[in-house]
Amino acid sequence: MISVIVCTYNRQEYLPDCLKHLANQSADNRDFEVLIIDNNSTDNTANIASDFIKSQPEMNVHYFCEMNQGHTFARNRGINEARGEILSFIDDDAFVDQNFIKEIQSYFDKNNQVSAIGGKILPVYEGETPKWMSKYLLTLVSALDLGNSPKKFKGSKFPIGANMAFRADVFEKYGHFNTDLGRRGSGLEGGDEKEVFLRLKKEKEEIHYVPSVKVDHIIPEKRLTMEYIKGLGIGVGSSEKRRVTKAGFVETMKKIISEGIKVGATFILFVFYFIQGKFSQAKMLVKFRFWVLEGYLK
């Protein structure tokens, strides 16, 4: 069985559609459960969950309120409450494809060596696509598209939290999400899923990109403002500083080298886009890298 864990915080405008897509699966209802983990929301989330459970008596749906504020606390609560052999995590503003459950089942069944997967995440902008957007900045809107063929995540690449799945025993072997990392309330820090995937890679566990496991990810206009993107960049930098500081000297040195490489790559891409006349894309690459460094050096 697959446990789909939906961690939610004050997203009453998106949660109903998120749940409706899970109710519209081609898979048999006995093949999966849905766990709604309310991270102490102050809006109508609890009533939305209750109404959905009542309207879908044939589905296996459970609601839990996690009072410890933080995305990682909610994810860990989902792990502890889940009964499935596969644990799937989606965001509360991510709408799954109709064959989402079947595709997860099929891939794990056919690939016994795979411990975790990340699916395709397609951004759906509520407004216009920002002029500054490029394929190198898609992670800013938690989007992921590595093509239409399954492949292994290599090097520093890893799945994105809006659509990822693990064999349940991964967390028994290597531990849960690090509660020192991740978002808290309306904060913009992250790094929690990255830290988990780095742990798995260190242990030589296989992590695959599976494009047939698809979700649409809603991107509101407020997430595309300069203020939000700046906060996101600073949050990325500060969470990385916290992660490598705890990991020790070796990881800190690796991070310094990695950031140096990224700064160099950013400069090359800036020149590339500037020559093509794509000035907004060129400038945003530099701005975001600066904000990440600002967050790291604070």
What does this structure look like?
It is a single chain. The chain is of the alpha/beta class. It folds into 2 domains: 2-224, Spore Coat Polysaccharide Biosynthesis Protein SpsA, Chain A (Alpha-Beta Complex); 228-297, no CATH class. It is 43% helix and 20% strand. It has 9 helices and 9 strands. Strands 1, 2, 3, 4, 5, 6, 7, 8 and 9 form a 9-stranded mixed sheet that branches. Helix 7 packs antiparallel against helix 8, helix 7 packs across helix 9 and helix 8 packs antiparallel against helix 9. The longest helix is centred in the last third of the chain and has 27 residues, at 249-275. It starts with a strand and ends with a helix. 41% of the residues are buried.
Let me know the average pLDDT: 92
| Count of discrete domains | 2
CATH architecture level-2 label of the largest domain: Alpha-Beta Complex
Radius of gyration: 19 Å
**The CATH H-level homologous superfamily of the largest domain:** Spore Coat Polysaccharide Biosynthesis Protein SpsA, Chain A
> What is the N-to-C order of secondary-structure elements (H for helix, E for strand)?
EHEHEHEEHEEEHHEHHH
Quaternary organisation of the protein chains: single chain
Distance between the termini: 44 Å
- Unreliable stretches (pLDDT < 50, length at least 5) are none
What is the number of beta strands? 9
Give the CATH topology of the largest domain: Spore Coat Polysaccharide Biosynthesis Protein SpsA, Chain A
Q: By helix and strand content, what is the structural category?
A: alpha/beta
Level-1 CATH class name of the largest domain:
Alpha Beta
- Tally the helices: 9
Q: Level of helix content?
A: 40-55%
